Prior knowledge:
Layout: E1 2-5, E2 20-21, H1 24-29, H2 32-36, E3 39-42, E4 47-56, E5 59-65, E6 86-88, H3 93-106, E7 110-118, E8 123-129, H4 135-141, H5 145-156, E9 161-163, E10 168-171, E11 174-177
Amino acid sequence: MIYKSLNGFVFPNQTGILTTEITSNDITRSPDAIKRAPGIYQELVEKDYELRVTIVGAKVFPALVRTPHQGDGSVDWRHAHFENIFEECTLDERIADKLVAFQREAGLRFGTYDLIIDAGGQCVFLECNPAGQFLWLENALGLPIMDAIARDLCATASLRVHTHAEGYALLNGVVATSK
């Protein structure tokens, strides 16, 4: 079983509690700990790899995460996020359609989705982060997520984006720069 904190609490020394493997013995030995540490408890799924999928409107940006098979990174890839574990990939159309439908039904314009592909090739949905981080994937893989967010915001606000060769965009008369 795994435990995920409900909040992103970071201690003063910049450490935090990432996804942690726990056993039934941990729970029976210290049942009061659950009362003091509400969180998400999920089955530990043996994984082949993970997917981090960012969706903006109906645009899907998948990234494959080559999860380490040993150490803390095998439970939570964030322990290994400075390693070269991210790759561009294509997402099965059925999975993409289900995620976009979920997002639409949830009334979201943006979401990051965490999925596991197990050793048998089955896709396991972990969660949707409606305010999930994505910028490191844009930087590492060149995924145009910020552009999609800007375009989606403009489309929903009935604005037009005019991108100029000098590296700035004109958003309904207001200048925004990426420099």
